[in-house]
Amino acid sequence: MYKDAVGSVLSRDLKLASSVSPRFKQTKKILAEAETSIAKAPRPMVNHLVAALIALNRMCEVSVDISDLTITR
């Protein structure tokens, strides 16, 4: 997703930029499912798993922001 977001800005490819947002919506669903699965994880791992999910979510949000630069230009 990040690669496509950056690529869309550099190449000014609107089609590629437009493909990032729908994938973000799919990823949000997957991350939500992962959050519910974390409850089944051993207690010491929960903090690490939550941190990883937060980081992945933020990376996806940044990718959408980057692809939006192409669309709004």
Content of β-strand:
under 5%
Largest sheet: none
Poorly predicted parts: none
Number of domains: 1
One letter per element, helices H and strands E, the order comes to HHHH
| Global structural class | mainly alpha
Overall, the morphology is elongated
Count of extended strands:
0
For the termini, the CA-CA separation is 20 Å
* Chain-averaged pLDDT: 88
Report helical residue fraction.
Answer: over 70%
What does this structure look like?
The chain is mainly alpha-helical. The chain has one domain (2-72). It is 88% helix and 0% strand. Helix 1 (2-11) runs parallel beside helix 4 (43-72) and helix 3 (20-38) packs antiparallel against helix 4. It is elongated. The mean pLDDT is 88.
Summarize the helices and strands and which ones pair or pack.
Elements lengths: L1 H10 L2 H5 L1 H19 L4 H30 L1
Helix pairs in contact: 1-4, 3-4
Key features?
elongated, 4 helices, 73 residues
Structure in a nutshell:
Helix content is 88%, strand content 0%.
